[in-house]
Amino acid sequence: MTALALDHLCKSFGGLSVTRDITLAVEPGERRLIIGPNGAGKTTLFNLITGELAPDSGSIRLFDRDITRMPSDRRPHLGMARTYQIITLFPKDTILRNVMLALLGLSPLRWNPLRDLDHQHELVAHARAALDRVGLGHIADRPLSQTSYGEQRRVEIAMALAQCPKLLLLDEPFAGLSIDERQDVRRLLQGIPRDVTVVMIEHNMDVALEFAERVTLLHFGEVIVEGTRAEVVANPRTREVYLGE
Amino acid sequence: MSRWVRYGAAAVALLLLVTLPSWIGNPYYINIASQVLLFAVFALALNILVGYAGLVSLGHAGLLAVAGYTAALLLQAGYGHFLADSGAIVVTLAASAIFAVLALRATGIGFLMITLALGQIIWGIAYRWASLTNGDNGVNVATRPAPFGISLSNAPSFYFFTLVVFLLALASMAMFVRSPFGASLAGTRDQARRMNALGYNVWLIRFLAMMVSGFWTGVAGLLFIYYNQFISPQVAALTTSAEVLLMVIAGGTATLFGPIAGAAIVVIMKNVVSAYIERWNLVLGIIFVLIISFMPEGLVPGSARLARWAWQGLRARFNGADAARPVEERGP
Asked: Model pTM?
């Protein structure tokens, strides 16, 4: 069984091919890094996997289930969670409320117009526990707009983790962070349990390489190199397209 | 502490509303109070979309008219009040569903333009399909209902009836905005994309919000025809949609009491000030300009901000004076 299998996936916008015949298999529990220069089609690939974009051809399977045509809002219910490169949170709400929304998204309670959300003690306790796990418990009641960029990055990841996903898609979790903040996020990612499969996009190879077991290099929408960390770094094509030598 | 202040204020407001006919006396002004309450129900209904869903509709007068015309025509055809009113609500919900399916293809300006067009279609039907709607002459509503045998024919009794409906609408709205579904809806307003990625069906959430809004718009439409005992195409006109939207924006979107304050301002301007000043529209316009300039968030949240600011200023002055005195002179 593979956690995520892409089969001959293609997507183009007008004449511009952004995903060209990508075939990819990620094993359960694997940590996969997808790298590539700007415009390589990394985020588009994520948007195809999550269903925000529909592929022109090819198929996507999640734990051997074909989800190519499944509406994007159904996919989280099968254990897929993602974070965004550009922080996409609810700035007017508290951190706790942000995580509560993540939990509510998978609960039938989200349709209930008659109860008081703040009195759903089980949900609130769940959200607090999820924040404690990522070391944000002490600022749970702070409005998101009063938190630092690094903390917001961690809230992004905390929201995805709160949903207990089987497949976690991280879109540049280190983008824009200071060196200290990177350490926080790195510790957070290292603490993700092994039953979660992680696929991470990262532009910056230094911070991400140590995290990954296997690496896929994209360039102009194509898989150029794929293999273990050492294999990809040693590959001359990696140096050619990515390291600029 | 602040919770008790709030409960106290709510109790006082409720007491004032319940005793209003006895201290106003004059039926003319009691009728204006009824109008404020029925437009408040309408504005609360629109606020679900404008405030909590972030969808600005300019076609809500159309839905109000659908409810009003359906009930008026059914009554004219000889059906009883219960059947006519239930029929009107069902037809309004169906119209809301059509509005939703067509308009929810877009958000923002696109949504606004589609709802505007749909509202104009309903106005066109009311105005031009004379064999059904009696065109410009409108439809008369001969009697008001008599719930539990209580006649609503005089001003105070109709006021109390409207007050009960208004309080029901307000209570259901207060429950709605605090509920998990209310949180889901506000989430689709703030970050639709993220909500989708968290497993929410954004389209369906917005559709249901339009149905809830349509339901209370229908209720307001029924209050409207029973109040006026008459309906004409003017109700469905764009100016009605714009007026109720102004109530919501001026009072404060996404607040519980903003639409009520907005309804009060517009209705009072229209009826009371117009008796003294011929160009009352000008006065209304100036009031709106002042609100938008000094309280862009709306009258209710704006006043709350000013009150907080004044309170803090007073306290700082008091504490400052206290701190400036030598320690031994300070109070305990």
From this structure: 0.91
